[in-house]
Every structure is written in structure tokens, then in C-alpha cells.
Design goal:
The protein is mainly β and 216 residues long. Helices cover 4% and strands 31% of the residues. The protein has a 5-stranded mixed β-barrel.
């Protein structure tokens, strides 16, 4: 299913693009930062063909970014944009978002990636806007209460080991506010709104989100 774009995206949502040549040199740099509108779809995994069906009439706004974390990363998780100066900060992600709640400059790594994820230095799509699944926290204490439909969501504070632990990092949670400084960070860090509810007992579960990430 092709992307809605006037340019050739070179690879589809749910796939990755090779990031190095046979000598280990970085390649395909020209696609980094490319923003494309894809149909919002779901795979019918029971079919041998891997057929896709439209999930909703709207589209997913995605950006192509390089994985520079040094390890394989997996879909449906929030990843942190690079903090280097210049254009490098909008061309790559450095790992899952760290243990800070309402982390800024994060995007959702392609939730339709296969189980193999995206290898270090390879290129993947990251979701900026549209309806797509993310992941709930691995620990009930990070939920900040049950998540209801329509609840604003931020990056969860996580008990995971930070930028490379796919078992705990890169999750979403409810907004929580205990002081003015935290209230500002939470407001700035809202990533979208829950489309499906989840209780704090539903740890490490998919949650459908209407993403609205104001990065690109």
C-alpha cells in the first residue's frame, strides 16, 4: 500500500531501510527527515499474505529517522531524538526515552515493525500524528492511575534501565502534576490522547493512541 506523497518514500511503513553498505559506511542519508503520510492500517496476521486493512479513514504522519542507539530497538515504543547540534538532531534517534516522565523531543517508533525491530544504523519510520498503538508502562506505579479514553498522555517515568531496555522504557502514562514546574513539563510533553482505556494492572500492554507530536 503506497504512501500518500509526491515523493518516493523508498520503503514502506512496517519495514526498515538498510543504513550501511558492505564496508560499514552510512548510506541512504538523503531520506532522513523525510515526512510522509501513510494510510492508517492494520495487518491481518492470520492471513498468509499478511494482508492489510484500513484501520481508520485518516492517515499517519511519519518521519524517517536513523537508529544510532548502538543496538536493535523495537516498535510501539517512544524513542528520543538526538541532541547533537545541527541537522543531526532531526535525522536520528538515540534510544528509547529515558526515565524522565513527560520527556520532550520523543517520537513513536513504527508500531508495525516486525519482531526483529530496527537494527543499529538502519532507518525506520516514526509516527508523529494519527491513530496507532503504543505501550503501557511495565510497572503499575508508572501509570499515574487508570488511563481513560480521551486522557492526555505523556512519556512515562520508567523503572526500566533507560535508553536500551525495551522491556521497560518507551511507554506512555497519564499526566501528573504536583508543582508548577512539573505542570509546565507535563503540558509541553503531551504526545496525544488515549483511544482505548487501560487499568494500571494492564502493564506492558498495547494502548491505542491518537498521536499529536509537535516535532516536525
Amino acid at each position: 500500500m503506497s504512501a500518500f506523497s509526491t515523493v518516493n518514500p523508498k520503503f514502506e511503513l512496517g519495514t526498515t531501510l538498510k543504513g550501511t553498505d558492505g564496508d560499514g559506511n552510512l548510506i541512504n542519508d538523503e531520506v532522513l527527515g523525510l515526512v510522509v503520510m501513510f494510510p492508517s492500517w492494520t495487518k491481518v496476521s492470520s492471513l498468509a499474505s499478511g494482508a492489510r486493512t484500513r484501520q481508520i479513514g485518516s492517515t499517519l504522519k511519519c518521519v524517517a529517522l536513523r537508529n544510532t542507539s548502538g543496538t536493535t530497538l523495537y516498535g510501539k515504543r517512544l524513542v528520543q531524538l538526538a541532541t547533537t547540534s545541527g541537522l543531526g538532531s532531526v535525522k536520528s534517534f538515540t534510544g528509547y526515552h529515558g526515565p524522565t516522565a513527560a520527556a520532550l523531543r520523543v517520537v513513536l517508533l513504527d508500531p508495525f515493525l516486525p519482531s526483529g525491530g530496527v537494527a543499529n544504523n538502519d532507518i525506520a519510520w516514526c509516527v508523529l500524528e494519527g491513530v496507532a498503538p503504543g505501550m503501557t508502562p511495565a510497572a503499575s506505579g508508572d501509570f499515574n492511575g487508570d488511563i481513560s479514553v480521551g486522557a492526555p498522555l505523556v512519556a512515562a517515568g520508567t523503572f526500566g534501565s533507560g535508553s536500551t531496555d525495551h522491556n521497560g522504557a518507551g511507554r506512555v502514562a497519564n499526566v501528573t502534576m504536583s508543582n508548577i514546574t512539573e505542570a509546565y513539563r507535563m503540558a509541553a510533553g503531551i504526545l496525544g490522547y488515549a483511544v482505548s482505556p487501560r487499568t494500571s494492572g494492564e502493564t506492558s500492554s498495547e494502548i491505542l493512541v491518537q498521536w499529536k507530536i509537535p516535532i516536525f
